[in-house]
Here is the input.
Amino acid sequence: MTALRRFIAAIAAGLTAATMAARPGQAIDYQPGDWIPFPPGTNVAMGYYEFSTHSQYNSTITGTAKSNTDLYSNIGLARYIYYNEIFGHPFDLDVIQPFGSLTDGKIDG
Here is the structure.
């Protein structure tokens, strides 16, 4: 084995080891139609909404503030998807518009 081949093999082995040592993958739940396109000409309108409250703020510099700390979030998403074909290949136009509010935000009063 030549020096160049040994060098390339060492780089490949190092990259493989680094890839295997990386943190594990995380699963994502897909919605119907995200991978299998609907028939051409299909229009889909969807809405998502989430409300949450928070009573503490964690800062890596100053620590966690729990006293008199609040945040209310009302977040929504409007999503429109249009499915079609171009040159025999399916595609979709996906438009997402976020909206909402973050209210009563206080950190340590």
About this structure: The helical segments are 3-21. The beta strands are 43-54, 57-59, 63-65, 70-86, 89-106.
